[in-house]
Amino acid sequence: MIAVTTYKGKKVALFGLGGSGMATALALIAGGAEVIAYDDNPERVAAAKEAGIDTQNLREVDFSTLEALVLAPGVPLTHPKPHWTVELAKSHDVPIIGDVELFAGERRVVSPNATFIAITGTNGKSTTTALISHVLESAGRDVQMGGNIGRAVLSLDPLNVNSIYVIECSSYQIDLAPTLDPTIGILLNLAPDHLERHGDMDHYASIKERLVAASDEAIIGVDDDYSAAIAAYYGGNEHRIHRISNVSAVDEGVYLDGHCLERSKGGLHHQVADLEGIPSLRGAHNGQNAAACWLACALAGLSEAEIQAGFSSFPGLAHRMEPVLAVGNIVFVNDSKATNADAASMALASYDHIYWIAGGLAKEGGISSLRQFFPKIEKAYLIGEAAPEFAAVLSDGVAFEISGTLDIAVHRAFADAKNGDDGTERAILLSPACASFDQFANFELRGEAFREAVIDAVGPVGCENEFTEVS
């Protein structure tokens, strides 16, 4: 745990007692703060009491006595409307912050020279965070990974100048971190997402921009208009801006050229890494992730050989273009983490013959932006609430069926893939382009359900005799 000593002796309110909220409350208490915590969920309040946390209904607390309101990232700050605790805090000029802000403040006081790598972006941030952590660890560095992936940021090991903190930051967390100041800040890309929480794309982009604005070194993707504009705005200070692309060559940065990464520096270009034959880094989108990782690790002191070795041994991220099982030329791919069309496009671009399982709770924009990939789709299997909406889009050129549930979709896709087998690689791809919340509590459970459905579809004999697990 990282004890938050910067609020020692101060009174702090905390709202939101999920995993990160509980970790934050305990970290504040460990650092000597007086914490009053609450949640709209009575079960979470009871769990906090059992853990020794003082809980009170914050409607009954005098906000004028507070130094801060610590908000869990899932609690609305601005849209669709501010949470009632936010309104109370604003009416008393109480700062509203989150766990990443507490981490940043504690680092400045306790271990300002500890390397802090922060990663954000609409898509790819979890893969990039995991990849950076893996490459650094494989080179013998002490790495603490957390934030929006894995462990809550304040549940990491105590701050240490010899550790490297690799922290995935969501837009919600950045919005609650006004003094966020990474050693290396990464903005991968920007596409419409979470607009119900941020109002519009301009506001969403401005929040993401904050992460790189105060970074000692900033790595910025330039393959979308918003990110490119941010890179151009800060580009006057060339020594701290590094560009990445999986589309074209860039100046002062790293870009994907075929299956290789090329570095551009001082007008010279040279190859720095080769991604060919690394299944976990398949697809052009992973070129952007790898480019960001290469720069971050190089800035952290790794050699080209150390980074290449780390790339080659990267196992991949669960639920993100994860090859689960293969039989002959048919591969089952778990891309449950693709919760919007932009994320799904990356998986669709990576295979040529696809039996696509899609659907769930639709995001704004649906799947119309994926039309360029429709010729690759042998058939689509639609599940969840979005099925009728997606069927209407697919009806003008893609074979589809409304399967309803994930298990039925997997069974039907496997049968069709076997019947259509012509010797080419065929992917049974779960890449929903939707949130999971209509049928599953989260994308992880949806991914696990996909794994179970694959085993069930093949049967124990098939699994034993025909399948080879893909690691």
Structure explained in plain terms:
The structure is a single chain. By secondary structure, this protein is of the alpha/beta class. The chain has three domains: 9-97, Rossmann fold (3-Layer(aba) Sandwich), CATH 3.40.50; 100-312, Mur-like, catalytic domain (UDP-N-acetylmuramoyl-L-alanine:D-glutamate ligase, 3-Layer(aba) Sandwich); 322-469, Protein-Tyrosine Phosphatase, Chain A (Alpha-Beta Complex). Helix content is 35%, strand content 23%. It contains 15 helices and 22 strands. It has helices at residues 19-30, 42-50, 84-91, 99-110, 125-138, 171-175, 195-198, 201-213, 225-234, 284-299, 304-312, 341-348, 387-394, 406-419, 443-465, and strands spanning 11-15, 34-38, 68-71, 96-97, 115-120, 142-147, 163-168, 184-187, 217-221, 241-245, 253-257, 260-265, 268-274, 322-327, 330-334, 354-359, 361-362, 377-383, 400-404, 426-430, 434-435, 467-469.
Considering the protein shown, what is the CATH homologous superfamily of the largest domain?
A: Mur-like, catalytic domain
The backbone outline, from C-alpha atoms, is globular
Structural class: alpha/beta
Q: Just name the CATH architecture of the largest domain.
A: 3-Layer(aba) Sandwich
Q: How many beta-strand runs?
A: 22
Helix content, binned percent: 25-40%
